[in-house]
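Check this:
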Amino acid sequence: MKNIIQLFLTFFKVGAFTFGSGYAMIPMIEKEVVDRKKWMGKDEFYDQFALATSAPGPFSLNTAVFVGYRVCGWWGSLSAVIGSVLPSFLIILLIAVCLADFRGNTYVEAAFKGLRPAVVAMIAVPFVQMLRRLKKWYFIVLSAAVALSITYAGISPIYFILAGGFTGAILPFFEKGGEK
């Protein structure tokens, strides 16, 4: 029961203090889940992040589902998802009820414009962190080949997602003599 409450509070905090898209939540989720709570290791977190981005739906919620399930099973998933969604719901409700009159306020508009660079930086952080772990030329060549194949050959991105998942699943058997 204690972990279920901790999951709720952790994802409530993440949902309440991140602005922008789900990408902006990833550094904060990683810090909480990996560094502070030690619910999973960095490699497991990145694997789960890759799975969350490829699953249908908002990947910040998918991340909450996967982390919650890893920590406390089904109830953990439910707790993490509710914790993640509740702050946004309450803020939107508050804005709709109380702050609709401030829509054209120059100070409110200026505050949102000021948040934009921070949101861009928070989106860039997980991308840069994942790039550090990859071989740069391999990543650049593979990304260019996939982009060109999708754009000019008309190959569906689904095939590349499936091929990447399959490759990621069998690659450990070929590295280090099959031990992993």
In short: The chain has a mean pLDDT of 82. The longest helix spans residues 59-98.
